[in-house]
Amino acid sequence: MGALSHLRILDLSRVLAGPWASQILADLGAEVIKVEHPDRGDDTRAWGPPWASTDRWTDERQSAYFAGANRNKQSVAVDIAHPQGQEIVKALASGCDVVIENFKVGGLSQYGLDYESLKVTNPAIIYCSITGFGQTGPYAHRPGYDFLIQGMGGLMSVTGHPDGEPGDGPLKVGVALTDILTGLYATVGIMAALAHRDKTGEGQQIDASLLDVQVACLANQAMNYLASGQQPPRLGNAHPNIVPYQDFRTSDGHIIITIGNEAQFARFCEGLGRPEWSTDDRFATNSARLAHRHELISLIQRVIATRTTSEWLDTLETRSVPCGPINDLAAVFADPHVQYRGMRVDFPDGDTSGVSVIASPLRLSASPVEYRSAPPRLGGETRGVLQRLLGFGEEQINNLIRDGIVRA
User: Fold this and answer.
1) What is the band of 1 on the pLDDT scale with cuts at 50, 70, 90?
2) Cβ(47)–Cβ(14) below 8 Å
3) In terms of C-beta density within 10 A (0-12 exposed, 13-18 middle, 19 or more buried), how is residue 325 classed?
4) What keywords sit in the KW lines (predicted)?
5) Are 19 and 342 in contact (CB under 8 A)?
6) End-to-end CA distance of the chain, in Å?
7) Is the confidence at residue 230, as pLDDT, over 70?
8) Pairing of strands 204-209, 126-131
9) What is the mean pLDDT of the chain?
10) CA–CA distance, 99 with 121 (Å, rounded to integer)
11) DSSP state letters, 130-162
12) In what order do the strands lie in the sheet with 245-249?
């Protein structure tokens, strides 16, 4: 029994930010009913190759992208554009604690599935709306996508090589980080709203905006700007406030060095065979190292280039200097620590071919994360949910299937 096994979530979201939030809740035990279009389902089901699995009965393929954000959920395929479909979703919402949706602002009101409509029959409902720009403001009705928001929200302005270096220019992060962070913030907001409801009995709407989240997550870079009025430069893999804190080229690859204090820097210098650097006025403090960044980095690079990555790791790790390799994904999942921590979960064969997913990073001692079910096939639980929660009979469901209102 997971920590949230007393909760039921109605997930009307697609793609990544909303499904990421509902997957976190599902991992923690909540019952998540994912409402999808009967014909195409969540858009990301078709975002392949690569394909994570194939339904053994229908040969329907499921993309790796979809599988990464939709385990532990029940797929109910309903056409919300049809009045009967709308009534089904309304009835499901009346028995749920939380609704998550990422339609355009006002997009669900035409179906009677907006917050104002649903709270009439379920005043305690927590209704989380995820959009690119929020429910209010001059951009509220614009569509918003992760790449777009990384650019508009400032992340790309501080990501990439400095001007004048090979490959210079702004870059997006290699995963849809803004979507992921918005899913995390949405989850925090949902948990806070549930705590408020526990105290007051009141539900509420949560307005989660990708742009808001991206601006908030600029963190120290945004604070550097607010404090100085200066645009933080792109520094490649270097850190704006700490030196040395970047990658260096070894004789056979790269190594990352992350020095966080003066004691670590002293041990690092000893490991390099240059103990005098730690007492040199140019380098003895982090402020001095920032002022002499280019000089110090050039000196370090000359030394690091003389040995292999593994040799430097052996030398520096014995001195408790924070360092590590730059792994590709094969190396990540082959890493003994990653394997020990169980960061890969393999679901056995069922109605679909077996699928492997990335584990949750949450570790709870009393109510651990559960991996109850693989990402669902489209409409795989429609019949069961309609029978169990709404009391529909076989003939009623078969008629809905015949009319194209649901898929089961």
Assistant:
1) confident
2) no
3) middle
4) Transferase
5) no
6) 28
7) yes
8) parallel
9) 95
10) 13
11) EESS-SSSTTTTS---HHHHHHHTTTGGGSSBP
12) 245-249, 254-258, 323-324
* CB-CB contact of 260 with 321 (8 Å): no
- For residues 154 and 2, give the distance between their C-alpha atoms in angstroms, rounded to a whole number: 38
**Domains, in order of start, for the chain:** 8-216+340-407 (3.40.50.10540), 245-330 (3.30.1540.10)
Q: Are 281 and 288 in contact (CB under 8 A)?
A: yes
Share of the chain above pLDDT 70, in %: 98
Q: Which of 28, 42, 41, 180 is nearest to 98 (CA)?
A: 28
Question: What is the distance of C-alpha 76 from the center of its chain?
Answer: 23
Strands (E), 8-56: 8-11, 31-36, 51-54
DSSP letter, residue 55: B
Q: Which amino acid is at 143?
A: P
Give the span between the Cα atoms of 45 and 64, in whole angstroms: 8
The three-state secondary structure class of 356 is: strand
Place of tokens 């009995």: 201
Q: Does residue 53 contact residue 377 with C-beta atoms inside 8 Å?
A: no
User: Could you list the active site residues?
Assistant: 179
Give pLDDT tens digits for 98-128.
Answer: 999 999 999 999 999 999 999 999 999 999 9
Q: Determine the Cα–Cα distance for residues 162 and 152; give it in Å rounded to an integer.
A: 19
Written as six digits, the tokens of 61 are 């393929």
Q: What is the pLDDT of residues 297-310, one digit of tens each?
A: 999 999 999 999 99
pLDDT, tens only, 33-80: 999 999 999 999 999 899 988 776 677 889 999 999 999 999 999 999
Confidence at residue 53, expressed as pLDDT on a 0 to 100 scale: 81
Instruction: Name the one residue in this structure whose structure tokens are 């792109």.
Output: 234
pTM of the model: 0.92
HSE toward the beta carbon, residue 397, CA cutoff 13 A: 18
Contacts of the segment 400-404: beta carbons below 8 A, 24+ positions apart: 400/84, 400/88, 403/82, 403/84, 404/38, 404/79, 404/82
Write down the H helix ranges in 305-353: 309-317, 329-334, 336-340
| Total residue count of the chain as it appears in this document | 408
